[in-house]
């Protein structure tokens, strides 16, 4: 059985470390691939850039997507994911500190499956990660890959 991969798209190193710590604390054994900007996320998902010529990437079971990213923001990443038949059905949880209502609206308009504001408190953040893991990696039935 193939490991279910989580793609964490996060440019803030403190938030990345917090998320990885929360995964460990919640006993999430899934492989976590970290992309630190929107371009790196797109390259990983579509086998381009530094991922060109590598074995075809394992599409993640879940994408945790920050919105405020360098190169391509999270909304642009989401737009590109939904435009491609290989990735249009990937579950994408926007995991962001943005409190802007327009970000919330636009995320759903572009096809986000969920929108979660990052709690600042570590205990609450770890609890949110555990709930995300339970739903998206255990309970949710993923769509078939491809078209």
Write the layout of secondary structure elements.
Elements: E1 5-9, H1 13-25, E2 31-35, H2 38-46, E3 62-65, H3 74-83, E4 92-96, H4 101-109, E5 114-117, H5 122-139
Parallel strand pairs: 1-2, 1-3, 3-4, 4-5
Helix pairs in contact: 1-5, 2-3
Written overview of the protein:
With 147 residues, the chain is α/β, with parallel strands linked by helices. The protein has one domain: Response regulator (Rossmann fold), CATH 3.40.50. It has 5 helices and 5 strands, in the order βαβαβαβαβα. It has helices at 13-25, 38-46, 74-83, 101-109, 122-139; strands spanning 5-9, 31-35, 62-65, 92-96, 114-117. It has a 5-stranded parallel beta sheet with strand order 2-1-3-4-5. Helix 1 (13-25) packs across helix 5 (122-139) and helix 2 packs parallel to helix 3. It is globular and about 40 Å long. InterPro entries: CheY-like_superfamily, Sig_transdc_resp-reg_receiver, TCS_response_regulator. The modification 4-aspartylphosphate is found at residue 66. Pfam families: Response_reg (PF00072).
């Amino acid at each position: 059985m193939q490991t279910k991969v989580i793609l964490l798209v996060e440019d803030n190193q403190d938030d990345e470390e917090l998320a990885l710590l929360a995964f460990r604390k919640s006993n999430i054994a899934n492989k976590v691939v970290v992309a630190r900007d929107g371009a790196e996320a797109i390259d990983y998902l579509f086998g381009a850039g530094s991922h060109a010529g590598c074995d075809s990437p394992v599409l993640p079971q879940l994408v945790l997507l920050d919105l405020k990213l360098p190169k391509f923001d999270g909304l642009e990443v989401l737009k590109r994911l939904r435009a491609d038949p290989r990735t249009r059905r990937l579950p994408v949880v926007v995991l962001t500190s943005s409190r802007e209502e327009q970000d919330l609206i636009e995320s759903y308009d572009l096809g986000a499956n969920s929108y979660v504001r990052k709690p600042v408190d570590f205990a609450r953040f770890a609890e949110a990660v555990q709930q995300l893991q339970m739903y998206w990696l255990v309970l949710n039935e993923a769509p078939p890959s491809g078209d």
